[in-house]
Amino acid sequence: MEEKRETGYDINSILSGMKEEYWRGVSEVQEEAGETLECVTLLLGGELYAFETVHAAEVLRIPKLIRVPGVPEVITGIFNLRGEITAAVDIRPLLGLALPEIGERGRIVVVKGEKFLTGILTEGIVGIAPLPLDRYETAGATRSEYVRGEIHDGDRLVLLLDLPKLLASPAITATGH
């Protein structure tokens, strides 16, 4: 019995063509995108701030904070993070920002310092976003010493925090008052 071979689709050539088209599209997108910096974006004092995702450990709803006497005011309290006592800090005074009330959208971003984890109180998390480095400008003298620069991302101005410098601040490490 003779087998009839129907003319039709050659799946291997179709898949090969799709693969080539996919990789061509990926390389075009990478060329168009330019260099970016992956950042956690958040609200502080009603303004948009960001820091590199490598410093972030997790985002939490604000737990019950226990106030500790004798520590700097920026340390708003401590909380239990899976058995580890972790400090919660409000960095807005260090940045010279207004202190609007932290409402339901408020979160704590747990960040990794050189020697410890700490939680930064925020008015809200905007998200994780790649920020375009070709739109980066160094911070002007009017900005806080903890702001590295600013990135114009479309119609948004995002202030880039110098998180290692901020976490080494005497106000946060509790070595100075």
Describe this structure in words.
- The protein is built from 3 helices and 11 strands.
- With 177 residues, the chain is α+β, with helices and mostly antiparallel strands.
- The strands form 2 sheets. The protein has a 6-stranded mixed β-sheet with strand order 8-1-2-11-10-9, with no helix packed on it. Strands 3-6-7-5-4 form a 5-stranded mixed β-sheet, with no helix packed on it.
- The mean pLDDT is 84.
- It has one domain: Beta Barrel (OB fold (Dihydrolipoamide Acetyltransferase, E2P)).
- A hairpin with a 2-residue loop joins strand 4 and strand 5.
Q: Give me the Rg, rounded.
A: 24 Å
**Strand count, sense and closure of the main sheet?**
6 strands, mixed
Instruction: State the strand order across the main sheet.
Output: 8-1-2-11-10-9
What CATH calls the topology is OB fold (Dihydrolipoamide Acetyltransferase, E2P)
Helix content: 10-25%
Domain unit count? 1
Beta-strand share of residues? 35-45%
- How many angstroms does the end-to-end distance come to? 94 Å
Shape: elongated
Number of strands: 11
Number of alpha- plus pi-helical segments: 3
The CATH class is identified as: Mainly Beta
CATH superfamily: CheA-289, Domain 4
Q: Low-confidence spans: pLDDT under 50, at least 5 residues?
A: none
The secondary structure category is: alpha+beta
CATH architecture designation: Beta Barrel
